[in-house]
Write a structure and sequence with these properties.
single chain, alpha/beta, Rossmann fold, 2 domains, 10 strands, globular, binds 2-amino-2-deoxy-6-O-phosphono-alpha-D-glucopyranose, Glucosamine-6-phosphate isomerase, EC 3.5.99.6, glucosamine-6-phosphate deaminase activity, NagB/RpiA_transferase-like, hydrolase
């Protein structure tokens, strides 16, 4: 698992959007071999969609040969309800890009036979050749799509009853009125996400900090379903600084240093192999985003003194009980404490 940390939501969203654009463009999709993209809703991906729309308008990306599958949809909410995920996707993305409507797939939460709708959705994904990249978000209780705590990590697309935490969290889209929030949803399963060739999660804000720490540092657990991504071969989490508040300082430093070293390596390779100034400038720009003094680091590297923050040093500290948290809150892992934590 890779964790990419940016100062704020803007930086994280720009990174994620650029990542998706690069993936689609390098795939060179055609009508016969389209790029299959899994998509989420919620506030977290909004800025990514804004960036994708801007890039499309600037001629940097076409979605003409992209097929999409959304993660989830509420049960019983009319498609044209402003808070349906159908409305959300058209409002934030589909209405502004060149995607063919026939290539858009969103679960029908009003289907007469919901189980059949879910089974057909899995079939459609398989027929499309599987998902190349699944973009996702997480809920404050660590759910991915609508796979609430306790969901099987092998689950597939199905009807799911929403947890109280999620109903409360999503009530902000329904005027704060809990009674207006649908209590069930159709959702892809954890295994459906895990089957994607690549998964990218966007995690923003301090209210996701516990969930992110559990996802990255905790054990793989049905109680924090996003933690299943630890078992994925190609998972990237893109987050803002606030979302890292509950992670160990050393974990944060570790992932930052890994990104720094890999960017520097790519820059060194680009310099020696291609002598491409454009590429070097791009990498220098990326390093600037990380607020790294590239000249200093290059000098260090030439001296052979580049030392990434090593995971082994974490072990020593853990062993003697000196793990330093960014906050000194003691978070007990009880369902009861989760509810009050998220309500706050
Ligand atoms: N089913 C969606 C999830 O797919 C999403 O990740 C989560 C977080 O939403 P937000 O980004 O608004 O916090 O909300 C809903 O529960």
């Amino acid at each position: 698992m890779k964790v990419i940390i940016r100062d704020n939501a803007d930086g994280a969203s720009q990174y994620a959007a650029r990542y998706i654009i690069n993936r689609i463009n390098s795939f060179q999709p055609t009508p016969e071999k389209p790029f299959v993209l899994g998509l989420p809703t919620g506030s977290s991906p909004e800025l990514i969609y804004k960036n994708l729309v801007q890039a499309h308008k600037a001629g940097e990306i076409s979605f003409a040969n992209v097929v999409t599958f959304n993660m989830d949809e509420y049960v019983g909410l009319p498609e044209d309800h402003p808070e349906s995920y159908h409305s959300f996707m058209y409002k934030h993305l589909f209405a502004h890009i060149d995607i063919h409507p026939a290539n858009v797939h969103i679960l029908d939460g009003n289907a007469p036979d919901l189980a059949a709708e879910c089974a057909a959705y899995e079939q459609k994904i398989a027929q499309a050749g599987g998902i190349d990249l699944f973009l996702g978000g997480i809920g404050p209780d660590g759910h991915i799509a609508f796979n609430e705590p306790g969901s099987s990590l092998r689950s597939r697309t199905r009807v799911k009853t929403l947890a109280e935490d999620t109903i409360r969290a999503n009530s902000r889209f329904f005027g704060g009125d809990l009674s207006q929030v649908p209590k069930q949803a159709l959702t892809v399963g954890v295994q459906t996400v895990m089957d994607a060739r690549e998964v990218v999660l966007i995690v923003l804000g301090a209210n996701k900090a516990v969930a992110l720490a559990k996802t990255v540092e905790g054990s793989v657990s049905q109680l924090w379903t996003a933690s299943a991504l630890q078992m994925h071969e190609h998972a990237t989490i893109v987050c803002d600084d606030a979302a890292t508040d509950e992670m160990l300082v050393k974990t944060v430093k570790y992932f930052k240093s890994i990104e720094q070293v890999s960017l520097e390596q790519e820059m060194v390779q680009a310099t020696s192999e291609h002598r491409s100034h454009t590429n070097v400038d791009n990498w220098r720009g990326a390093l600037k985003d990380l607020r790294i003094d590239t000249d200093k680091k290059q000098a260090e590297q030439e001296d052979g003194e580049l030392t990434p923050d090593s995971m082994s040093s974490r072990l020593v500290d853990s062993a003697i009980g000196l793990n330093d948290k960014k906050t000194d809150d003691l978070m007990f892992d009880r369902m009861g404490s989760r509810v009050s934590t998220f309500a706050a």
